[in-house]
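Handout, page 2. Input:
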Amino acid sequence: MQGPDGDNPPALLFWRKKMSPISDDPQGGEASAAALPDDIPPSLTVNPPFTDHARPGETEGSDPLSAMERLIAAGDRAGAIAHAESIAAARNEEGWSAGLLSSLAHCLIDLGEPARASSLLEPVMAAGQANARALTVLARAMSLEGRHQEALAALNEASFLDGRSAEVLLALGAARMAAEDTARAIGDFERVLRIATDETESDTHARTEAHFRLGETWASLDEPERAARHYRASQAEDAADRRGAAIRLAELEAQPAPVKASAAYVRALFDGYAPRYDGHMTGTLAYRGPELLAAAAEAAEGFSSGGPHDAIDLGCGTGLSGAAFQRHCAALTGVDLSPRMCAAAEASGFYTKVIAGELIATLESERGPFGLAIACDTVIYLGDLDPLFAALEKVLLPQGWFVFSTEKSDGASEEAMSRGFEIGPTRRFRHTETYLRGLGEVHGFGVVSLGTEVLRTEKRQPVESFVCVMRRR
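Output:
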């Protein structure tokens, strides 16, 4: 699975269940999962910036925040949680700041542990030592626990402490959206636009986010013209389109649909999702894509007997496909846009090499040759697959294998009939069987098998996908 964060972390991303490649309800072990709703309101999925301008991974020092990030990158979820709680326990003795605890709490939220994040910051708030950013992070944790009124109270206090903070106003507007106080939420987002007028990076980021959220808000109120105006403004402020405004505009029929999701959008999405990816996908969403792809490959005549293969995993994510295919690989290269996903893949031990980069560029630079290419739930972010097939045609050995999945389109829409792919209701690309078979023919791939499977559920509904095994002629 691919990932983006261009120059900015996924700090102010506004993730909606409709747009996300995953469901947005957190998953974090039995204790926290039981307390969380199945469908978290879109406006609650705000990931505020790390406090005190400290972001995990920016330093290689021995400070607690860098240590936390290293534990997350290594896939040591239990160790990261224990580390954060040990820092909180030693706070009075060591004199750790509210800013540091806020950053650690932010990491716990990323890990799907909002209750633990709240427990880190509530004593700070009770002692009257919480700054506006600490209260903002606490409010997000409370919201994810379903404690909406307490979250609003924390954000109101944050606004008293710093009423001109764009971060606070964005979070306050999101919380009000969750409470269905739409008019006041719009007022908060509009106020951000009045405040963030400088050409600094932080003000530009705040304007981009405020415009995007206003687009989401007006779209939810069935005001497409107003929504489109704000999506365009968000896109103009951020040419990399980290929030996916181009896809939103296509949904509103305000501009043609893109042929792929922007790399920056995908990277930011998965950088923020990486810490809880495995548990959430395999647990909450009943994800079994890698296993189904491996089973389809093993059923193909000549696949197992012709191995082990020098392989490349396109959109490797945290390494779930590596685990499923490792017994068939003499060497395995992982590729993903998300550095955090790449770090987790490296920690898995399944890969000979992991590359953080764009798929086509990596295929052109690596050149192989490879005997096997895997792409599990990756091409759902690529509408036009011709460049991918063209690149694979050059790097796969004769008789080499391409095993991949994509969401299924029945071809009924005008978009699918004309292009062979479409943007589905979950804002991912779906492809038609005719399109996939045609691409294979054009680029010298024979279709060994192409079946329909359920790779995961979403909102408790099965997501139908094609599982395809092709072989280069």
